[in-house]
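Late entry, written up from scratch paper. The run itself happened at the end of the previous shift, but nothing got recorded in the book at the time, so transcribing now.
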Amino acid sequence: MTEVSNPGNGSLGQSEARRFGVVRTVLAYVFVWSCLVNLPATIFHVGVPDSYEPVLTYAAAHHLQWGRDIVFTYGPLGFLTSDCYWGSFFWPILLWAGAFALAVTVALMPLLSRLPGAIRLALYAALPLLTVPTCLGLGFDPIRILSIAVLGIVCLPGERPGALRLIATGLVLTILSLTKFTYCIYSVGTFIIIAASNRSGLWRNTAILAGSSLLSLLGICLWSGQGMANIFLHITRSAQMAAGYSAAMAIPATGFDSTAGIVLLIFLLGLLLTSWFSSSNWRGRTDRVAVVAAGIFLAWKEGFVRAELHVMVFIVYAFFLAVLLPALLGLDLSAEVERIQSAKILPEPVGNPFVARRVLALSAACILFSLAPVFYNKDFKAAIHNGLVGRNRNTLTAFLRPATYKLELERYLETMRHEADLPEIRALVGGNTVGAMNLDQDVAILNGLNYTPHPVFVNYAAYTPELQRLNSEFFNSQKAPEYLLWHTGSIDGRFPTLDDGEVLLRILKNYTPVTQEKGHLLWKRKIARENSYCLSNERDSSGSLDQWVPIPAEPTWLRIECKQTFFGAIRGLLWRPSELRIEVQLDNGEARSYRLLPGNARSGFVISPFIRADYQLIEAARASGEFPEDPTALPKTFGGESARIVAARVRAADDFAYKHSVRFVMQTIDGIWPIRGVSPATESKEISRAQ
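Output as recorded:
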């Protein structure tokens, strides 16, 4: 009996296989998309939000102009990157989070098909863990930097991009450029590389991408109320701030971080070069290599200039880049693995099988080594443990029940308002304008005060004389606020008066302390007077590193000029600048050491008297008759003995990084009430009388 086959069975099997393939593809897209969605947290599990975050939302909501009213490396759309919700722009934040994740997912998934199954599995396993937005010192920066590389490469001629992809890429790169200056640099560089690659008759692609970017920029400026001229001013001043960032914020890595970073960088560069020269068409991959190399450099600089907070940026970026690098360079490792396993003679997707195996080995080494820090970084592990479930729950709630998600965000915002509540200061200030120095910006905004920021509102970020001048001119103008939340001090062990520079003199001349609540000192603007302070009796002297320079007893303003050597400049570009320190000798024999920022030192700062605590200014106000409206509102607590600085010297951590010649310029400060010498004996009498 002859068996008759049923041709329908084969068709049915193929149909089921196709359906299964479609379902699997859809699930993969949804999974990757959900991991790339970055939304504000409904509860902050690790650390606290940065004080500058609410300013980004506040300034955008009040249509302050970036580059003029606000000077910061985060741009007019910087609120889209906030880890917390600050009461405005809920729908733009939600729409951007979903659209950005979708654009990157659509560009990324075809690249994953070029990877072997084991590497794809490693990516799928790590993706939900390494994209938790509440990781301390991590944020979402490595994903955004990687997204620019992916979007740029899929728009290169070799990927045959369509008009829709080019338009979407132009929009996404423009938005990213207006969120943070780092993304702006990378996006502009990527656009230049794409334009250069399209020179062979593909000008249409460049025109579509450029047109999309320009129209997006115009639309965003119209929507946000930003002037086009101010956008370019924002870019110019952000570049100035970025140029001073390395020397000002350089903090070395601790423990295993430096070693891990250097080894990872070597592995990545080895993988990049091996993948690049793996075929005879290596010249055709130069554009891809340029896009990837720029991303590696930016991630390296962000991760290791201020390494104690941002080292995980480079490490996480290294993991994702190690997974995707062969695919980004146009190699099909999936086909190569299949050829090796099946022992079939197929066209060699990579070229030399030995080279292909070496690419796979380097990829595996980078992947494994980049995951090692996860197992010893306690903060990173805690962030994943505490934030993973909440992050995925927020994503589901945000897109399925957005009203519920918004309510949860507002509840957390109300919690932050309760913790920052200053009822006495709020009642005293009323509707008058209020400024905030140091890290008090979030307090002013959470209390609903009429916040008026100075240009470089994070004053520790005024790294250059030009940026210091912008703040000083603001406090000397009619724009200066009626009240000011300000207390002395700095970050990272800097000299106490280094950040504020001449702003300190403006504040001490024009404001007087009135009250203190929960550690926040409130100052009130005084009635304008004709007289002003002045800097007189300039003394210019040349010294050298490690040489002690005497400091006069009278109130003294000091400028210090130190110049980098060629070696120091190269080190600062490729790694981080060598640290400068100022050591001071006190009249009681004690010596102290502080960080010295080259840009701030060139601008100048108060070296004498040695102002390092609020109580000194408060007591000086009392002693000079500059009484506040309610003297009893000010505390009567005192610190240790007051001491005068009698000598200072500059030291460099690396003798080859700075020239040995140092210029010191001193001037006498006249006409400001608290700037006066207070001897230990005088202060002791003040303490006894108060007690």
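Residues 343-349, 677-691 have pLDDT under 50 and may be disordered.
(Scratch paper discarded after transcription.)
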